[in-house]
């Protein structure tokens, strides 16, 4: 018999706040975290806006010397992991540390470090490249540093699946606990790519919104006038726990994870498969894993990037799977407020989904002003909605055709 898995803590570093409560309050208030870029000079850039993390000081979470040896994406991850453990009231000195694991990934990894050290190489030569360059850059270092800083000695993994990274890491962590290989997993995603190279690359693809004159209106998922996504950054970490373990220590339970789906489009490096076929299979797999019927689902936290193809094909995927029930679903996109956090998106959005189930309050899709005939479902426009939410899905779709879905349900004390 599979172990039941619950969420007992949330760690958050985001454009809307660097703790669970601030993030959630701003999300349900419909506040935008998008503004003009301050992390580098955008004078030569077509795109000048992003959803930056604000007020983050890594030395609040670690020694200054340690922070200097981490890329920003790893700093975010360690900070969110420590915050998540504190939120879960989980003392690592009082648990079996080899039964606590980590599953945290990054879609791109230490791009800031790569850019800076490449400049050093060009200007000063190979002998001046930092000996910390490689361990600061590699994408698995977030998971590695979390284990070092928390003492978690159990299964340690860093799945990398572009924008589906956070969701895949949580799904794999869920399965580790379900199989009995760990009691607790620190799981999610982290990203810090508001950098010259990343912004230039995504801009060259035509993927980013250029609504520089009104940043807070730039991210507008499912709206007819959407013009591309807005780059975001941060980390979202869930503390997942075997239900029996959580009960034994008297943990407060936020929500229950009950299903996981993972599929490939096998179609294109950046475009979703036509008609949302791959995403539909991912959702179907998560439903079957959870033992749910399509009619059981109340809410979907959509990938909802604010790009023409994603929003259209994700809508088609939902209609393909849910049929008549699709019109009864509440659907919203957190990216309307926090931008697209790439590899961290699934972690942050899974946290928001868990909090939706706990609070019975659905965050809105802001900037929804002009309906798109091809996106004709209920996207909870502009204002949060209080309603009964028993079950929910959280979707992530990544470049390369990676699809991942998590199924949650509200936890009821037994």
UniProtKB/TrEMBL annotation:
Major enzyme class: transferase
Domain Ketosynthase family 3 (KS3): 2-410
Reactions accelerated catalytically: a fatty acyl-[ACP] + malonyl-[ACP] + H(+) = a 3-oxoacyl-[ACP] + holo-[ACP] + CO2; (9Z)-hexadecenoyl-[ACP] + malonyl-[ACP] + H(+) = 3-oxo-(11Z)-octadecenoyl-[ACP] + holo-[ACP] + CO2
Pathways involved: Lipid metabolism; fatty acid biosynthesis
EC nos: 2.3.1.179
Gene3D superfamilies, A to Z: 3.40.47.10
GO cellular component, one term: cytosol
The keyword Hydrolase is assigned to this record: no
Active site: 163
Superkingdom field: Bacteria
GO MF terms, alphabetically ordered: 3-oxoacyl-[acyl-carrier-protein] synthase activity
Functional description taken from the UniProt entry: Involved in the type II fatty acid elongation cycle. Catalyzes the elongation of a wide range of acyl-ACP by the addition of two carbons from malonyl-ACP to an acyl acceptor. Can efficiently catalyze the conversion of palmitoleoyl-ACP (cis-hexadec-9-enoyl-ACP) to cis-vaccenoyl-ACP (cis-octadec-11-enoyl-ACP), an essential step in the thermal regulation of fatty acid composition.
Family (UniProt): Belongs to the thiolase-like superfamily. Beta-ketoacyl-ACP synthases family.
Name of the protein this chain belongs to: 3-oxoacyl-[acyl-carrier-protein] synthase 2
Record gene name: fabF
């Amino acid at each position: 018999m599979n172990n039941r898995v619950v969420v007992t803590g949330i760690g958050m570093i985001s454009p809307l706040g660097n703790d669970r409560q601030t993030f959630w309050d701003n999300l349900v208030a419909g506040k935008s975290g998008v503004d003009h870029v301050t992390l580098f000079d955008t004078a030569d850039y077509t795109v000048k806006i992003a959803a930056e993390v604000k007020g983050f000081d890594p030395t609040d979470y670690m020694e200054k010397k340690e922070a200097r040896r981490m890329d920003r994406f790893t700093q975010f991850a360690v900070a969110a992991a420590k915050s998540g453990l504190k939120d879960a009231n989980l003392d690592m000195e009082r648990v079996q540390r080899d039964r606590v694991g980590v599953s945290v990934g990054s879609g791109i990894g230490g791009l800031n470090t790569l850019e800076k050290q490449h400049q050093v190489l060009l200007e000063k030569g190979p002998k001046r490249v930092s000996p910390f360059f490689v361990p600061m850059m590699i994408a698995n270092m977030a998971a590695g540093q979390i284990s070092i800083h928390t003492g978690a000695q159990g299964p340690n993994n860093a799945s990398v699946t572009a924008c589906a990274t956070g969701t895949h890491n949580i799904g794999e962590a869920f399965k580790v606990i379900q199989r009995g290989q760990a009691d607790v997993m620190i799981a999610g995603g982290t990203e810090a790519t508001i950098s010259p190279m990343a912004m230039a690359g995504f801009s060259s693809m035509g993927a980013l919104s250029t609504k520089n004159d009104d940043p807070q209106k730039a991210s507008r998922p499912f709206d007819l006038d959407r013009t591309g996504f807005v780059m975001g950054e941060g980390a979202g970490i869930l503390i997942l726990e075997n239900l029996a373990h959580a009960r034994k220590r008297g943990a407060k339970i936020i929500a229950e994870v009950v299903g996981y789906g993972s599929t490939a489009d096998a179609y294109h490096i950046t475009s979703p498969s036509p008609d949302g076929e791959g995403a539909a299979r991912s959702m179907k797999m998560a439903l079957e894993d959870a033992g749910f019927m399509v009619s059981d689902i109340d809410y979907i936290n959509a990938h909802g990037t604010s790009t023409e193809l994603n929003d259209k094909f994700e809508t088609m995927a939902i209609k393909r799977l849910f049929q008549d029930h699709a019109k009864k679903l509440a659907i919203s996109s957190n990216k309307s407020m926090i931008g697209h956090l790439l590899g961290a998106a699934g972690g942050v959005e899974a946290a928001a989904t868990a909090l939706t189930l706990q609070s019975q309050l659905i965050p809105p899709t802001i900037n929804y002003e002009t309906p798109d005939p091809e996106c004709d479902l209920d996207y909870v426009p502009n204002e949060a909605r209080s309603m009964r939410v028993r079950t929910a899905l959280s979707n992530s779709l990544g470049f390369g055709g990676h699809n991942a879905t998590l199924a949650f349900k509200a936890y009821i004390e037994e």
